Amino acid sequence: MRNIKILEVRSEIGAGTRGASLGVDAIKIAALDFMSNLFVNFPSEIVETENRLLYEPIASPYAKRIVGIHTMYERVSTAVAETVKSGLFPLVLAGDHSTAGATIAGLKMARPKRRLGVVWIDAHADLHSPYTTPSGNMHGMPLSISLADDNVENQMHNPDPKTVEVWQKLKNLGKIEPKIIPEDIVFIALRDFEKEEEAILKKGNIKVITVAELRRKGVENVVRQTFLHLSNCDDIYVSFDVDSLDSSISRGTGTPVSNGLKEREAEDLIASFMQHHKICCFEIAEVNPTLDKENMMAEIAFNILQRSVNLLMLN
């Protein structure tokens, strides 16, 4: 049985669309609607945000609000590391996906000698850097930060010295750089990425399991394949961006993409992962109720969360 702690990270300064900071509360409202006492049963910690920066001018166009992101990385990584060190399982409810790099940092800071695997369930690769980003939004960068890969071979921009300085700090958080290596990442449902990100995928020979492959092989098979691929890892972190779901059901997120997972596929997939003893953290990100109808996205996220928690309690 795992003792769980919920970390509430309502940060949305890494996203281009407003509203992801409301995702955590939308999930809590779904819990109330389903008469679940999930949020009563476990201790939770609210990580302070820097969302006030949304009202201020952007200083660094190729890594928007990077100074605030660095502050968030320090807070989130500390919260995650302390949770793990106190013997609890961190269940992270995040606004935008940018802070996932801080979750990875916290897991490494708690157990620096252990090899960390990452299961990234997302429509996007999140492998951009300030040198390659098409948007400047930092929710497209957490895995580059974790891999400490600037991808300068495919450089498009020349970020200013201040941006470069803070970017280096992000990569070196906890004085561990890189936090993960390419062979310890598995992407599931990836289907929307730029050629600069594709270059990293190819260079690192990073494993990608498409939606079509998942349907062809079945969930159990894909989960087995993932654990086999990550068999050299001591711990495995699962990050679930709700835009991995098909755009027909993932309206309540900032960057929906067609040809995604069905609700049941995502639920079964994550449930299968949660039964494994190597799973050390689970994160849900990018629920945005301002884009949604009848809180549907948050309800789907909550169902996944509830089933995951039930399984973690059994393990």
How are the SSEs placed, and which strands pair?
Layout lengths: L3 E6 L13 H11 L4 H4 L2 E4 L18 H20 L3 E6 L5 H11 L5 E6 L20 H6 L13 H11 L13 E4 L6 H9 L3 E3 L1 H7 L1 H11 L5 E7 L21 H12 L4 E7 L10 H19 L1
Parallel strand pairs: 1-2, 1-3, 3-8, 4-5, 4-7, 5-6, 7-8
Explain what this protein looks like in three dimensions.
- The protein has 315 residues and is an alpha/beta fold.
- The protein is globular.
- An 8-stranded parallel β-sheet has the order 2-1-3-8-7-4-5-6, with helices on both faces.
- The protein has helices at 23-33, 38-41, 66-85, 100-110, 142-147, 161-171, 195-203, 211-217, 219-229, 263-274, 296-314; strands at residues 4-9, 44-47, 89-94, 116-121, 185-188, 207-209, 235-241, 279-285.
- The protein is 38% helix and 14% strand.
- Helix 9 (219-229) crosses helix 10.
- The mean pLDDT is 98.
- It has one domain: Ureohydrolase domain (Arginase, Chain A, 3-Layer(aba) Sandwich).
- The protein is built from 11 helices and 8 strands.
